[in-house]
Amino acid sequence: MGTLGKIARRTFLIGTGLVAGGLAVGYYYYRRPYPNPLEGELTDGEVTFNPYVKIAPDNSITLVAPRAEMGQGVSTTLAALVAEELDVRLDQVTVEHGPAGHAYANTTMLEEGVPFPHFDESTIAELMRSGMAVAGKFLGLQGTGGSTSIVDGYYRMRQAGAAAREVLKLAAAKRLGVEPGTLWTSDGVITDPASGKILTYGEVAAEAAALAPPSEIRLRDKADWKILGKPQKRIDMRAKVTGAPIFGIDVRLPEMLFATLRMNPYRGGPIVGLDAGAAEKMRGVVKVIRLETGIANGFAVIADNTWRAFQAADAVQAEWGKGAYPPDDAGIFDAFDQALRSGDASYGRDDGNVETAFADAPRERIVEAEYRVPYLAHATMEPMNATAQLKDGRLDIWAPNQMPTLIRQLAAKAVGIETENCFVHTTYLGGGFGRRSDVDYAIYAALVAKETEGRPVQVTWTREEDTQQDMYRPAAVGRFRARLGEDGLPVAIDMRIAAPSIIASILPRYFPSLSPIGPDKSITDGSANQPYTIANYRVGGVKAPVAIPVGFWRSVGNSFNGFFHEGFLDEIAVAGKLDPLDMRRKLMAAYPTAINVVDKVAAMSRWGETLPAGKAKGFAFTLSFGTWVAQVVQVADVGGRIRIEKVWCAADPGQVMDPAIFEAQMMSGIVYGLSSAIGEEITFADGAAQQSNFHDYGPMRMFQCPQIEVGLLETAHRMGGAGEPGTPPAIAALANAVHALTGKRIRSMPLSKEVEFV
Amino acid sequence: MKLNVNGRDHDIEVEPEMPLLWVLRDKLSILGPKFGCGIAQCGACTVFLDGEPVRSCSVTVGEVSGAVTTIEGLMPDGRMHPVQQAWIDEQVAQCGYCQAGQIMTAVALLEAIPNPSDEEIDNAMSGNLCRCGTYPRIRAAIKRAASANAGA
């Protein structure tokens, strides 16, 4: 980390995820709380206690879970944090996402952006984290990502529940003429045990909301938790099994129009010619408009239903200018290879002296390998969409999104109004996986709404558009070497990885005036920050200057570095004639949490037992988003094809707020990773992505899905996330299992290019 | 043109080549069937046509002569269908976008095969994509609903 001091602070912030200028505001400003966004949203008689709690006189209680519900169960668990301290049952409250507001800033998302491993608790690492938290609060970026929601809400939302409970007790105590400390609360009612009198929260809410909470509120001991730590019924389950209209694409408004768009498939290229004559004459078509933005260029068709808009879009004749990147995979990967050979690397890890360690290494003690992964689409089940209405200077946007305050700011700017006149309504998301932390769909909808004379308009992308205009998971290449010691263990590992920088791709889309400089830790995330002790250990990242738009994809850099690092360690184990799991155990001896998950998964999977012929297991470990995860994948040879039979997963996030939801997230992350490993790939030819829909971008289907067994531990002393950490090790463990089964070391994804899966 | 959906007749005026999905969603505001791919690859738009599961994105409204049932029609008396209840009991849904289609396909499977084997479940359900990876819990829910059938 010696280079850190040389990096200008501003550069550093941008390089790790901050996306706004003007940071020179003092601590005082940071300390000033943001206004409560619920003040303007109250219905008759309802009062609010803080940005997370509203109570009406009839005792209907509304909790705000201000993070995108994209399947990860966050609305249930965030509400549970408040409910635990407020002393209400989850089945007696309504949970809302709530309005976009700086009060809901995600400070953890930025804290975890610091270029230090999760286990680094040195003074400098902690100082940087707290500095990022200050910056995060003051930028007020409300966002869902980085598997941070529960960690971020853990204190704040319990405190919100407790503060509301305390003022409710104060108000009741006044009413009853007793000391507040003598009252009991449960299930939304306050009981005076001495008199047996009962008051509902609703009955005292109005008085309570006017009171200041006590300055010291003690949160409930973990041992006394009624809701947290136990599996809860998801609050969104009923709506989701009855087909309720809860998604962005289900928004219906009076007088609403329907639109679709087609953007230049040569990413970033201009419109050369556009002939919409025939399209504009088609039934139901209102108009065809040009969309020329800093994100992409193309056109939208506005019609009276979505299908007619789709049909008319097909009838528009467009001539597209080329994008500023090599037109095909050969050229694209040449650029990657060149960056890998000669680009400037920044080192996320540089222990010992790697150059010296390799200088005198005997040839037979060296292991070398080159790895590669393709671009990937997110392929959320709900295609990108957003609905917008611009009327009388007010812009409303209904969007399944992960970044409501960013949308508010940028959509307002796009249509030329002030930010405070833009209102973002976050619906449920039909999948996110990072795609909806980009905000292109919402800006396009705002621009289309400029053309509909005050009528709301829903802009729905076709699956083809969703696939071809994705902000892809970056492709990446890596060149690795290791020197083995006499005992087979590595004494030196040198990794050099080239990938496009996600921040360098995102910034110009939304903040063209900011130039991204400095390192991007996502290039080495999952390789540079793993809990292994190796005497000489260097991991360098090089930005590959390829201008295909890239974005955050579930587990981000870990999604490919998990494969790179753990695939390469498996190779080292094979070369050193060591058991791959046992070798990890030795290298991770300084990190008891890592050993715990390794031992757990070894026991769960009965690692080391003799398997019948035609079956094999692979192992991998990745610490990402604060959660320590070890996995074993078992594969079987079925007539020359490979079936993924079973996955065992041991995960330790320190504390588990809801074991059933956490387990579901591990399963989800595993399936998402395996799906990419067996068959997903975005390739380029003639300047455009070649895949367009589920027939040629094929996610895992049920017949391919293994059984999955998850074991949870709570031994880590810092809390980690749930949404992403299941993904990285699954990919590597599968590749390692395929090697164990077939003897074939596959160093590029998807694996299906070299072996056939069931 | 007449269309019977969930027991109700609708008069609609659209091109016969318009896919049933878009008639349901944009004309009738029946929003349970979802748009996922438009080419019968993902199953999110699954509805019943005279009791048979079809991909409504790839059936034109002109081809429809019988009764259409969407997920909204699974609980005519407001009570959960046993398959929906099994989905709740197993806490299947994550993002939930594909689940209406998954449930429709599962209902059709269990009507055809009340106690399906693992292989029969995989075969019947593999036309329905889920990106959240709920497949293991879908399997469990189908088995739960099947055993509820057997117990009934």
Automatic annotation (TrEMBL), chain A:
Limits of the Aldehyde oxidase/xanthine dehydrogenase a/b hammerhead domain: 242-324
GO terms, molecular function: oxidoreductase activity
SUPFAM superfamilies: Molybdenum cofactor-binding domain
Keyword Transmembrane helix part of the UniProt annotation: yes
Cross-referenced SMART domains: Ald_Xan_dh_C
TM helices/strands, residue ranges: 12-30
Keywords attached to this entry: Membrane, Transmembrane, Transmembrane helix
InterPro entries: Ald_Oxase/Xan_DH_a/b, AldOxase/xan_DH_MoCoBD1, AldOxase/xan_DH_MoCoBD2, AldOxase/xan_DH_Mopterin-bd_sf, N-heterocyclic_Hydroxylase, OxRdtase_Mopterin-bd_su_IorB
Superkingdom of the organism of origin: Bacteria
Keyword match Transmembrane: yes
Pfam families: MoCoBD_1 (PF02738), MoCoBD_2 (PF20256)
Name of the protein this chain belongs to: Isoquinoline 1-oxidoreductase beta subunit
Organism field: Rhizobium subbaraonis
Automatic annotation (TrEMBL), chain B:
Pfam assignment, any one: Fer2_2
Domain of life according to the entry: Bacteria
Keyword tags: 2Fe-2S, Iron, Iron-sulfur, Metal-binding, Oxidoreductase
Domain 2Fe-2S ferredoxin-type: 1-74
Gene Ontology molecular function: 2 iron, 2 sulfur cluster binding; metal ion binding; oxidoreductase activity
Coiled-coil annotated spans: none
Name recorded for this polypeptide: Isoquinoline 1-oxidoreductase alpha subunit
Organism: Rhizobium subbaraonis
Organism lineage string: Bacteria, Pseudomonadati, Pseudomonadota, Alphaproteobacteria, Hyphomicrobiales
